[in-house]
Hints:
Layout: H1 2-19, E1 26-29, E2 54-57, E3 61-65, E4 71-78, H2 95-106, H3 110-120, E5 145-151, E6 158-165, E7 170-177, E8 180-189, E9 194-201, E10 207-214, E11 220-224, E12 227-235, E13 241-254, E14 257-260, E15 265-270, E16 272-281, H4 295-306, H5 311-326, E17 330-332, H6 342-350, H7 356-373, E18 399-400, H8 404-414, H9 418-430, H10 432-443, E19 453-454, H11 466-469, H12 474-489, H13 492-512, E20 514-515, E21 522-523, E22 534-535, E23 541-542, H14 549-568, H15 574-585, H16 632-647, H17 654-666, H18 670-683, H19 699-712, E24 713-719, E25 722-727, E26 738-745, E27 749-756, E28 759-767, E29 772-777, E30 780-786, E31 792-796
Parallel strand pairs: 25-29
Antiparallel strand pairs: 1-6, 2-3, 3-4, 4-5, 5-10, 6-7, 7-8, 8-9, 9-16, 10-15, 11-12, 12-13, 13-16, 14-15, 17-26, 18-19, 20-21, 22-23, 24-25, 26-27, 27-28, 28-31, 29-30
Helix pairs in contact: 2-3, 6-18, 7-19, 8-9, 8-12, 8-19, 9-12, 10-13, 12-13, 12-14, 13-14, 14-15, 17-18, 17-19, 18-19
Amino acid sequence: MKNIQLFLLFFLLFSCASQEQPSYLKLWYESPADATVADSPNGWQDDAEWLKGLPLGNGSLGAVVFGDVAMERIQLNEETMWSGSPQECDNPDAPQYLDKIRQLLLEGKYKEATELTNRTQVCTGKGSGGGNGSTVPFGCFQTMGDLWIDFANKEAYSDYRRELNLEDATATVTYTQGDVHFKREIFISHPDQVMVIRLSADKQQQMSFTCRMTRPEYFFTHTEDGQLIMSGALSDGKGGDGLQYMARLKAVTKGGEVICTDSTLTVSGADEVMLLLAASTDYQLTYPHYKGRDYLSLTRESIAKAEKKTFESLYQAHQKEYAAYFDRASFQLAESPDTLATDVLVAEAKAGKINPHLYELMFQYGRYLLISSSRPGTMPANLQGIWANKLQTPWNGDYHTDVNIEMNYWPAEVTNLSEMHLPMFDLIASLVAPGTKTAQTQYQKKGWVVHPITNVWGYTSPGESASWGMHTGAPAWICQHIGEHYRFTGDKDFLKKMYPVLKGAVEFYMDWLVTDPKTGKLVSGPAVSPENTFVAPDGSQCQISMGPTHDQQTIWQLFDDFEMASEALQINDAFTQAVGDAKGKLLETRIGSDGRIMEWAQEFPEAEPGHRHISHLFAVHPGSQINLLQTPELAEAASKSMDYRISHGGGHTGWSSAWLISQYARLHRSEKAKESLDKVLEKSLNPNLFTQCPPFQIDANFGTTAGIAEMLLQSHVYEQDAYTIQLLPSLPAGWKNGKFSGLKARGGFEVSVEWKDGVMVHAEIKSLLGNPFRVWYQGQYIETGNLEKGKTWKWNS
Ligand code: FUC
């Protein structure tokens, strides 16, 4: 009997193992990225080989792995490698012109007002350096340099494959030289704060190579305690040294010999080698940001701890910690797990043939990139996440608040990665002190403000040109994330902590808004509709006006969120009441004579009707004020606005097209949502699936993930004290069969759905908070009621 049991056990184990599917979520390639091609010196020119590399990251340390056989290049990043330093850019002369500008605008004198705004309201000094700020105080997010591994074996190779497994956040390179099969495994551990590189072969004594570390400027190397160390200082943008940085490399070998010089670490004849790399800067992550972090000890201790562990235990800790986030959500469309190499998928998409697996990959890649670039306690993901290979990263690799940083975080809540959202709140909170000074100096107003750009140095002044720099809707827009985090998580401690921040932004607008004497409505201004230009009645091209729809909508959302937060925290006083009154007096979104949403308070012709920004539709997405269920007329007008934009060439940059996925999805125009999604895949993908604006910007990666989620699940409509959970609200006809699990809905729900032949066959909604809920599918409410915390509602066709 015992034998039979044993036999059965072995049979079961064996049959399970043999049925185990290889990981499906991989980027993989049959050729390396060429490490011998130098990066272009021009900061704005993308590097084709780098964009074939595989990105790894643990929120603070990042790398792009080339996988070149003879010479491995691992391009290094650390999230705080910022040149520059704090600077004084507010203009104390600005306030005296504010009333005059407002008066000119309200009188319709746009040309004069735009000129006066440009002359008096912009920042002092060099601002962002025109997006080229690496040598001015604004600074720039820069590469940390490169780790080069020069292998002694230069023979020809075969059986090459490199891959990035999204399920364990590990890059692998395998190839055969002669009769030896080589393998490289690379991951960046969050629990151990090191990059781990295992180099192995299927025969003994095959590992011989020399490592170097270099940087395009400001670097020194030396050896200490058997480590190769690269260190240096970045420019502070004022002629001196700014941040100090250090990267340490250590080899742990099985067999063979290690010799370090001041510029190299050489391994000869080892059976297997584990390289450990730790890096940091002295940037102080806690506010007030500047220098102070003990980067020397931090990197020393990370290596000292990791070198005592085996590769297996480092890998297991890494995999467990990472997968706890990644595995929370799934999305499956393709019928079979057979996939093509990723560069083939990209090439096919460019030729107009999109493999369904590419949708799955892009959805999960955005989640992978968010986990890899934004962890609790780190800086938020910047314009390139944490991956940049230059000294002058495009747009300084900064935080743009007029769509880009917001888009980075659109997938955070809905794809079940709430924790990854936290760095954005730390950044917002850190803007309060400098932003209060800017509000006072620049406008003599209360509260705090920020404009379209910020950096790690607390930059809150307007930009160098008012045409884009006078984005006064920025504090309202970024603060929307506070409300969203609360709506999804119900975390009252978080809300309590962020309430003063939210209130500070509200205070600014309460002081900033003015009554338009013609309409009696409250309007914001002087302000831009992000980066867009109108034709004023006298024919001049202007950007500045009073009450652009974007400001009005974002401020409405801020006031509405403030009311929600005050109610949740049981705060009811004269200020909350005044905010409620002001919300009712805001100039509302209006429909123009052509049936579209008006972008400005007057019906101006657009200078660029296909402009990439779609900021006047903020209320459709990411806002929720305009929606199909509660404001159908405005929704119809928004639909027209989108179609008009697209027919005039809109959606032409990566992020613009990615945004349209969500906006169309919110209006349940599933085929248009898919068209926008397909456009991102056809026009904006690099071989490593990083998206192009162009240049490379990570926003469209995140916008695409968020857009796909928005096609599958929505929960932005709040009616009768409950969130309406809309299942498959924007499912395109081509996505016949599929399923998703673990997406989140506002009100604290976890949702899984399966559909066949375009029809939902199964749905499960788990209540995490016990809030009331309503379920909507194909225009019908299929459930309304209460679901106890922890209980799951199930539905079958
Ligand atoms: C905004 C956009 C640009 C670019 C930049 C980083 O200003 O208008 O297209 O994405 O951010």
